[in-house]
């Protein structure tokens, strides 16, 4: 069975929104009738996210099989309506543990175990294996696997994974592998001048490592001159440079990408028409999914302050709100279903303690109010 892979990488800064771009890309392909799965690569040495502080990493998302994983897998499940497993989250720790266990058992027949080829092969084998696991109620193998590479291109930690993906593009073939690179075009000074140099440097690093983006996603609105400049210096067509401006909600990102031709481009780039059979039932199901998604975003835009409902959320890690991503999403979905606008009042739990009253009475009284 032909399998398509879309790799999403990021440059310039971390936390640029790769997870939302990966989720949105998967959603768009699913609305066209394709079966989609996702993998998140985290270059840290931890085996999983279970021991990571929410202040350091954001929410630990718990899957149905008990896997404690990166919060981006929560985004994938919410956007794609799929059920993932702990195997859908790859970490450096997991890869090295597996390779060392194989070495101890003698699987490498006395060879010197190295990053290349043993670690890079293990990464590729893991991706190929997990990409075949059914994740939706069809019970069938996915057609497309979205792979998000965590961190920033150029990090020491991610180097083995970048090399593995460089090799992987040849393993699966040009028509089955596409790369989306998410970058930042900062706006400098009072005149609002957009600067492309950080993005140029990021693409130069990526191409130097053997990967060339098929599509560029900029985290800001782009002037036409800036789009042309990025196209020229980053070796892509102007139509492949997509601007993702800040939105009132992340649920608008799929619409932004679709309006700029993301689906049409990937359809041709991955030769989906010629290589994947999409049944009429799946096409109809995808069309219905897109219709419901549009209804969700439209209803959200029509909400006014008079429709607001205020929820007080007490927590230990409130200064990093990603620590409670699933709680916030659950509240968002509940208020959208009731046609209400969500307003969250974040309350630090320690501010409610009697001990905080003499130290900071204003915070204490505000928290209780």
From TrEMBL:
**Coiled coil location:** none
Keyword set for this entry? ATP-binding, Glutamine amidotransferase, Ligase, Nucleotide-binding, Pyrimidine biosynthesis
The reply on keyword Ligase is yes
The entry's protein name is: CTP synthase (glutamine hydrolyzing)
Molecular function via GO: ATP binding; CTP synthase activity; identical protein binding
- Reading the lineage from the top rank, the first entry is Eukaryota
Query: What NCBIfam families does the database record attribute to this sequence?
Result: PRK05380.1, PyrG
Q: Name one GO biological process term.
A: pyrimidine nucleobase biosynthetic process
One GO cellular component from the entry?
Answer: cytoplasm
Q: Which PANTHER family match?
A: CTP SYNTHASE (PTHR11550), CTP SYNTHASE-RELATED (PTHR11550:SF0)
Q: Which family does it belong to?
A: Belongs to the CTP synthase family.
Q: Which Pfam families match?
A: CTP_synth_N (PF06418)
For this protein, what reaction is catalysed?
A: UTP + L-glutamine + ATP + H2O = CTP + L-glutamate + ADP + phosphate + 2 H(+)
> What organism is this sequence from?
Linnemannia gamsii
**Listed pathway(s):** Pyrimidine metabolism; CTP biosynthesis via de novo pathway; CTP from UDP: step 2/2
Q: Report if keyword Ligase is assigned.
A: yes
EC main group: ligase
